[in-house]
Amino acid sequence: MSASDARAMTECSIQLPVRTDLVGLEPYGAPQLQVPVAINVNENPYPVPAPVIEAITTAVREVAGNLNRYPDRDFPELRLALSDYLERESGVRVAPEWIWAANGSNEVMHHLFSAFGGPGHPALSSSPTYSMYPEYARNTLTELLDVPRREDFSVDVVALKQAVDHAHPALLVLASPNNPTGTHLSSADVAEILNFTRTSGPQGSATLVVIDEAYGEFRRDGVPSALELLAAHPHLVVSRTMSKAFAMAGLRLGYLAAHPQIISQLMLVRLPYHLSALTQAAALAALSRADLLQAQVAKMRHTRDRMVQTLRGMGLTVAESDTNFVFFGKFGNRQKVWQDLLDRGVLIRVVGPDGWLRASVGTEEETEAFLSALKEALQ
Ligand SMILES: *Cc1c(COP(=O)(O)O)cnc(C)c1O
């Protein structure tokens, strides 16, 4: 490539018709650094077990010969498998017609914002929470309002009701268990929220209550899933993903459970054939071996509880965690703690309110390395 070709690739000699609200923005992305212990993005640290690799490879081989055809648009087989999985995981039977899936729960959420948000249909959330919600809102021209959480990261239900009554949002999006705090919403709070949102949306419609359960599988014993409230509340949506518990962030498969009329609306805005035949086949294969992946989850929950205890034993403040990460602090200079850990080969995440840091559950060895690096750093 000549020098002038190279320049032409980075400089643009014409002015692009960039959307005014996107001018100067940077694309999302956690820093990706090569370090011995990377526990910064809440991945499952264990590689995919051999029998799961085997099942996926076989399934992909079987569909490869038919890739000349478009995939099944409505993926009934996958919806049935997800419905069976949810029943095994949470004890709640959700019919396959109540399931929708897309490329990661990010895309599932984007479908919800595209179908129900937009001008005059605001969304409401409660910070600190998942950093992608503002991006779904921005992309779909949806105004996103916020009711900050309390000091202990619980949701302020009274303030939420006031905001809902005032703004009439089409969507109320709450992550539970929440990222980056790790905390869950109590069933009593979810039930109360569902009661005051039946007619609080635009023009007397309901406000859709979207509970993002990306970390649902990591909840502690006795912490219920919002799936239990689905049958009685047709304006409830529960989203899940294979990215975290299933060790399949690379697969891009997220899904939700909701009333079939909500799903009909999502089908209007999805791109045609959005879920590739390869994704469908690989997801089905992984679900057929969910037992193996759930064994990893049990191990990670155990490691998580040990991390929480150890950090508390060190005198740190640690939020209750129902996820595969811990949120801890409070540090006068969290950036320095983060850097001190990085200098010892451990990458965690600076995220959320000032003073706090987030570290994902690693393997036993990674977790040990993190804890001893932190002890050194804090001496
Ligand atoms: C990680 C995460 C997701 C997962 O998104 P995918 O697109 O399924 O990978 C969704 N919601 C929250 C709150 C998360 O932290």
Structure description:
This protein is an alpha/beta fold and 379 residues long. It folds into 2 domains: 30-47 and 292-378, Aspartate Aminotransferase, domain 1 (Alpha-Beta Complex), CATH 3.90.1150.10; 50-288, Type I PLP-dependent aspartate aminotransferase-like (Major domain) (Aspartate Aminotransferase, domain 2), CATH 3.40.640.10. The chain is 39% helix and 12% strand. The protein contains 12 helices and 12 strands. It has helices at residues 3-10, 50-64, 76-90, 104-116, 133-139, 157-167, 187-195, 260-269, 277-288, 290-313, 334-343, 364-377, and strands at 37-38, 99-102, 123-125, 144-146, 171-175, 208-212, 236-241, 254-257, 317-318, 325-329, 346-347, 357-360. The strands form 3 sheets. A 7-stranded mixed beta sheet has the order 2-8-7-6-5-3-4, with helices on both faces. The protein has a 3-stranded antiparallel beta sheet with strand order 9-10-12, with helices on one face. It has a two-stranded parallel sheet with strand order 1-11. Helix 2 packs antiparallel against helix 9. The protein is globular, with a radius of gyration of 22 Å. The chain starts with a helix and ends with a helix. The model has no long low-confidence stretch (mean pLDDT 95). The structure holds pyridoxal-5'-phosphate (PLP). Pyridoxal-5'-phosphate binds next to helix 4.
Question: What's the SSE blueprint?
Answer:
Elements: H1 3-10, E1 37-38, H2 50-64, H3 76-90, E2 99-102, H4 104-116, E3 123-125, H5 133-139, E4 144-146, H6 157-167, E5 171-175, H7 187-195, E6 208-212, E7 236-241, E8 254-257, H8 260-269, H9 277-288, H10 290-313, E9 317-318, E10 325-329, H11 334-343, E11 346-347, E12 357-360, H12 364-377
Parallel strand pairs: 1-11, 3-4, 3-5, 5-6, 6-7
Antiparallel strand pairs: 2-8, 7-8, 9-10, 10-12
Helix pairs in contact: 2-9, 3-9, 4-8
